[in-house]
């Protein structure tokens, strides 16, 4: 009787090689797909705030009396989209048949909410006594505010007032968007 030495099994080799290749593909494809899912918010374009509908032109007084309106916008973060979120407020003032002046209702000094005083026809910040004229300019030279109220871009389209809402750095004489 002769001792038999096992001969290399080619079929066994091919099965093992195929298992290594398939296992390698799976171990590479799955983490790459997970990485794309995880980094998906980073590859999206940054949310650049566009125009936001604030009010109808008919809701503004024709005599130039300003009126305060909340600004509601859609906020998008990494994976969430939330609609009608209050992001601030503005004063709208009709300056013509189809023209509007828009002022951010936040004081440029330290960010307090500015109120409108109908008896003086101007704006007043109760925190540090800054006062502003009807067009948003500083009314009192002793005012602690470093600049007038921040005017925003507005478009009147089909009887609706659309505003490009943004906030600016507080305490700075320069109007720097944040």
UniProtKB/TrEMBL annotation:
**Could you tell me the superkingdom of the organism this chain comes from?**
Bacteria
Residue ranges of the TM segments? 13-39
Keywords from UniProt, A to Z, are: 2Fe-2S, Iron, Iron-sulfur, Membrane, Metal-binding, Transmembrane, Transmembrane helix
Which residue numbers delimit the Rieske domain?
Answer: 68-163
A matching Pfam family: Rieske
Molecular function (GO) terms for this protein are: 2 iron, 2 sulfur cluster binding; metal ion binding
Entry-linked InterPro entries = Rieske_2Fe-2S, Rieske_2Fe-2S_sf, TAT_signal
This chain belongs to which protein, by name?
Rieske (2Fe-2S) protein
Species assigned in the record: Gemmatimonas groenlandica
